[in-house]
Amino acid sequence: MIEKIIDLSVKNKFLVILMTIFVIAAGTYAMLKTPLDAIPDLSDVQVIIFTEYPGQAPQVVEDQVTYPLTTAMLSVPFAKTVRGYSFFNLSFVYIIFEDGTDLYWARSRVLEYLNFVSGRLPQGVTPSLGPDATGVGWVYEYILESDRHDLAQLRSIQDWFLRYELASVPGVSEVASIGGYVKQYQIIVDPNKLRAYNIPLQKIKMAVQRSNKDVGGKLIEMGETEFMVRGLGYIKSIDDLNNIPLGVDQRGTPILLRNVATIKIGPELRRGIADYNGTGEVVGGVVIMRFGENALKVIENVKKRLEQLKSGLPEGVRIKSVYDRSGLILRAVDNLKKTLIEESIIVALVCIIFLFHLRSAFVAIFTLPVGIFISFIIMERQGINANIMSLSGIAIAIGAMVDGAIVMIENAHKHMEHEGGKKPHWDLILAASKEVGPALFFSLLIIAISFLPVFTLEAQEGRLFKPLAFTKTYAMMGAALLSVTIVPILMGYLVRGKIRPEMKNPVNRFLIWVYHPIIKLVLKAKILVILLAVAVLVVTYIPWKRIGSEFMPPLNEGDLLYMPTTLPGISITKAKELLQQTDRIIATFPEVHHVFGKIGRAETATDPAPLSMIETTIMLKPESEWREGMTMEKLVRELDKAIQFPGLTNAWTMPIKTRIDMLSTG
Q1: What are φ and ψ of residue 302, in 5° steps?
Q2: pLDDT at position 116 over 80
Q3: How many other CB atoms are there within 10 angstroms of residue 586's CB atom?
Q4: Topology adopted by domain 44-133
Q5: What is the pLDDT of residue 497?
Q6: Where does residue 355 fall: left (phi above 0), alpha (psi -120 to 50 degrees), or beta otherwise?
Q7: Of 148, 143, 171, whose CA–CA distance to 158 is shortest?
Q8: 216 phi/psi in degrees, rounded to 5
Q9: Helices (DSSP H) in 212-294: which residue ranges?
Q10: Contact present, 32 and 511 (Cβ < 8 Å)
Q11: Would you say 343 and 398 are in contact if contact means Cβ atoms under 8 Å apart?
């Protein structure tokens, strides 16, 4: 069968060349269109139920909200894990689904079960679904700065302007706010006055609710025109609240809200604070990417939208980026691209040196980019991102991809040495190709399927290593296909003229001179060589038992995350003090570009952090600007030594790694 394919390819040269051109064009298009990311998305398919129960202790939230929701979600189809967390005021329930479950199908099933269980929850408690995203989707963070606006005003700009504009960017699931003050009307009731007027507290609540709405009065007709009648009652100022009537006293004098309470504008209860460089509190925003989106494209679109929005901000308000994952993505992919190019050049040089014929070497080298293009075409259609793992699969395959072409060219050289001029050139090339083509095709195919066991991996390990196995397999299959189609045709056109015999190549001659005595010695001492091999195998048992293990190799993200924990029950004031002190110390290091600290949670269901958890993102300068001899490990040791506070347990990691660890461990 393979011989027939070779024969058909040589007979239909134009069609095969045309198809190859189409593959190159389609591969170029697919390469430009394939999404870029640093690492594969390792997050599980999960749905978050977020519930607020104001003013309630964690135990009450657990008993009345989290427990009913958790037990109801256990029977959701394909749900493998249900996790519940209860905090002051808040409940989080995470439903983890089996691999391969469609996220939006899972969300619709959870909604069905949520409708069923909502009747068992306390009155006024309404659970809601979190965004269609995970903690790994925190791709971009920014802060607002101004010399003319206070934290409450900046938070209002973030909540009522920037948040909605950025949420409309394609691929953005949610924009979470952190820091600053959320303004609210606060009614401070005097219990003595309530008792004097004999007014229950519930009556004040009802009066405020009834006074904060517009009412309709149907229509009236005047002068051949109809007018809608409305009663305008929405609260717009403190005076509106002050003048809310509660009833009348014994003399018939109206009792107003201001007679029994003091009304002011104050901040809402805060469960999260943000800080920049230890200089003080700031207002920030977190852009959360939708599950499965192209991270680099989303970040680029967010940056463009922020540039457009700057003109609409109040004078003096500035937006500053504090975390941008696109830098890591571009660094990681560029490093791997550089490695791929270097590897391809080395393979090309080896081909030229050993074949000792430039045009013949070009035939072998040609299979590299075309095989990679074939891999990218399938990657793009399958939805695999171009990331460290998927591109590593191609890098692993490069050395083996040219094997088939090199052996076929070498065989053609031998035929031309022995039969050159005795038979037509194309017949000679065809005979040489048919002689080794089938064996080469199946040998490359065997290498391609050698990664089949990787496809049996499940959960996070499957999501991590499958892209590597897919791309390596596609590249090898592409190389196998090229070796029996376009390679014989290129050989016919390019492998011509004077072909030097193998023994006239000085490199080959030297290697054969070295190899012959070694192989003779090995064959003479067969038993000794086998015993030495067994001894080496036995000795490797010792390091194998001592070597450590880790889920994935550490990725140097170029940035750090300082994530200590404090004592439970810490106050918001002390938390703010600790955050600013640690950030100020970190910012003094010359390797640090800037520091963005967060304690507590951002306003998103993807962040269940308690007030005792600090997350400080440390953006570092390029390594060329670091002190001489400084490494990431040494920098972490110095930072750890500089920050020693009683009750603070230091932990140094990296942003993406932390999010992955959180998702995997719950």
Answers
A1: -65, -45
A2: yes
A3: 21
A4: Alpha-Beta Plaits (3.30.70)
A5: 67
A6: alpha
A7: 143
A8: -100, 145
A9: 238-242
A10: no
A11: yes
Continuous H helices in 163-267:
163-167, 191-197, 201-211, 238-242
Read off the tokens for 358: 């430039």
Report, at the CATH architecture level, how domain 2-33+357-496 is classified.
Up-down Bundle (1.20)
Tokens of 539: 């000795």
442 and 364 Cβ atoms separated by less than 8 Å: no
For residues 600 and 649, the answer to whether their CB atoms sit within 8 Å is no
**Residue ranges per structural domain of the chain:** 2-33+357-496, 44-133, 183-267
How far apart, in whole angstroms, are the C-alpha atoms of residue 54 and residue 90? 8
SS3 170: coil
Q: What six digits make up the tokens of 588?
A: 């003094």
Strand duo 559-562 + 614-620: pairing: antiparallel
Task: Measure the CA–CA gap between 449 and 402, rounded to whole angstroms.
Answer: 17
User: Is-contact 44 663, C-beta < 8 A?
Assistant: yes
User: How many residues are present in the chain?
Assistant: 666
Residues sharing a CB contact under 8 Å with residue 487, sequence separation 6 or more, in sequence order: 363, 367, 404, 405, 408, 433
Residues in a beta bridge with 292: none
Helix axes 388-401, 459-483, angle to 10 degrees: 30
Per-residue pLDDT tens digits for 266-279:
888 888 899 999 88
- Give residue-wise pLDDT tens across range 322-351: 998 888 888 877 777 777 777 777 777 777
Distance in angstroms (rounded) separating the CA atoms of residues 285 and 603: 9
The answer to whether the pTM exceeds 0.85 is no
- Contact of 99 with 462, CB cutoff 8 Å: yes
Distance CA 417, CA 409 (A): 12
Q: Determine the Cα–Cα distance for residues 259 and 360; give it in Å rounded to an integer.
A: 98
- The one-character DSSP state at 634 is H
For the record, the structure tokens of 91 come out as 């409940």
Which residues does residue 642 pair with via DSSP β-bridges, in sequence order? none
- Inter-residue contact 467 to 393 (CB < 8 Å): yes
**Residue with tokens 């504008």, as numbered in its chain:** 265
Report the distance separating Cα 643 and Cα 445, nearest Å.
56
Give Cα separations from 352 to 340, 379, 410 (angstroms).
Answer: 18, 31, 12
CA nearest neighbour of 151 among 173, 128, 182, 176: 182
Kind plus residue range of the DSSP H or E element containing 246: strand 245-248
Residue in this structure with the two tokens 């070009």, named with its chain if needed: 362
The candidate with the shortest Cα–Cα distance to 365, out of 346, 390, 392, 339, is 346
Could you give phi then psi for residue 525, rounded to 5 degrees? -105, 60
**What tokens appear for 155 in the block?**
């938070």
Architecture of domain 183-267: 2-Layer Sandwich (3.30)
Phi, psi of 128 (to 5 degrees): -135, 155
Confidence at 419, pLDDT banded by 50, 70, 90:
low
Query: What strands, in cross-sheet order, belong to the sheet with 614-620?
Result: 272-276, 592-600, 614-620, 559-562, 652-653
Output helix, strand, coil percentages for the chain, rounded to the nearest 5.
Answer: 55, 20, 25
pLDDT recorded at residue 134: 74
Give the dihedral sign, CA 97/103/106/107.
Answer: positive
Structure tokens, 217: 């009065």
What values do phi and psi take at 594, rounded to 5?
A: -160, 165
